[in-house]
Amino acid sequence: MRQRFRHLVLLSLAAFAAIQACSGQTLNLAAAANLKAALDVLTPAFEAAHPGAKLQVSLGASGSLVTQIQQGAPFDVLLAADAAYPERLVAAGLVAGPSFPYATGRLVLWVRRDLGLDPGLLGLSLLVQPAVKRIAIGNPALAPFGQSAEAALKAAALYDAVKPKLIYGENVSQAGQYLQAGAAEAGFISAPQALAPALAKGLVWTVPQRLYPVQRQCGVVLKRTPQPALAAAFKAYLLSPSAQALLARLGYGAP
């Protein structure tokens, strides 16, 4: 019993020391745009658990964020929307340790409710209907959710038919903004975005996983970070049961 008590005391002291080491530090996080809703909740929770530490979040398309990092942007951690973009940084020798999966992205089709088209019945084929004049997606050259949308359209043999209707946001967040603004009647966004009150006027259909490659969202800690302890603490928090439960509630799949 005494030995167990001593062990618990040592663990508590170690945890306290880790929190103290992170106090007063800022962690610069580059995050895929689809993570906005999750980070709006995870950021204050992480900061509350690490008094004095601050999480500075920059959202964008994964491809754009990787380019910024390669050009010297002072990020400490990257959370990408796929596995391929972090691997570019691994191959370039810019990361500390291997990439780590933290979630699986899920693609959904959003359709304006007043069109009278039910995606549950029609699936992707509703996109060829005359009532759908514009379809918003993230730029496939930069945004993994845009890549997934393009892959799904091609797998369904609909890409050529709907290509003239596609309008591209820099990232999946901007695609969602087009839908909110009424600039498109339908579009491809991430499952968490579909929960936003601003998009409640639409119908949502989860795109079958068989139509696009599994989108494993992965992160990396940058080798040049001046805050390795804080970066490690954030990684551990992101993979913790509480953070994973939140991601699941928002519609993400398990890593």
Notable traits:
40% helix, D-Maltodextrin-Binding Protein, domain 2, 2 domains, 10 helices, 5-stranded mixed β-sheet, single chain, 255 residues
Topology:
Layout: H1 2-22, E1 26-32, H2 36-49, E2 54-60, H3 62-70, E3 77-79, H4 84-91, E4 100-105, E5 107-112, H5 119-122, E6 135-138, H6 144-155, H7 159-162, E7 166-169, H8 172-181, E8 186-190, E9 202-206, E10 215-221, H9 228-238, H10 241-249
Parallel strand pairs: 1-2, 1-3, 6-7, 6-8
Antiparallel strand pairs: 3-10, 4-10, 5-8, 5-9
Helix pairs in contact: 3-4
Structural overview:
This protein is an alpha/beta fold. The chain folds into two domains: 2-104 and 214-249, 3-Layer(aba) Sandwich (D-Maltodextrin-Binding Protein, domain 2); 107-206, Periplasmic binding protein-like II (D-Maltodextrin-Binding Protein, domain 2). The chain contains ten helices and ten strands. It has helices at residues 2-22, 36-49, 62-70, 84-91, 119-122, 144-155, 159-162, 172-181, 228-238, 241-249; strands at 26-32, 54-60, 77-79, 100-105, 107-112, 135-138, 166-169, 186-190, 202-206, 215-221. A five-stranded mixed beta sheet has the order 2-1-3-10-4, sandwiched between helices. The longest helix is centred in the N-terminal third of the chain and has 21 residues, at 2-22. Mean pLDDT is 92; it is low at 4-21.
